[in-house]
Design brief:
Helix content is 32%, strand content 25%. The protein contains 3 helices and 5 strands. The chain has a 5-stranded antiparallel beta sheet with strand order 3-4-2-1-5, covered by helices on one side.
Length: 126
Amino acid sequence: MRQAREFVHERLCGWGLADLSDDVELVTSEIVTNALVHAGSDVDVRLRVYADRLRLEVRDSASDPPVPALYSLSDEGCARAEHGRGLFLVDALADTWNTSPNGRGKTVWLEMDIPADAGEPGRSVE
């Protein structure tokens, strides 16, 4: 988890997008954690920057899409209450997000708008 956050932080700083780092690190943590807990497989993280948006992709070996789960007071203390709520953070912070099958599992991806004058567009890092 820490490696994924550090990777995102370093890339965003290198691209001049440090202002986005906190939000992107948070959604990275949520998506990577979800993949590790539910897929139980290796996780690949890809980050791309374009002129107008940032794209984060997290690939794992599970084919089931992530499902946001509402929290209620009746769930307090229940193990299932700990799953799915982070996706609401992803939904709140990302401009768009979804999942795509990739032949060996799925890719959860999200995009966030970036300022037009920030960073160096056209770079992709895995």
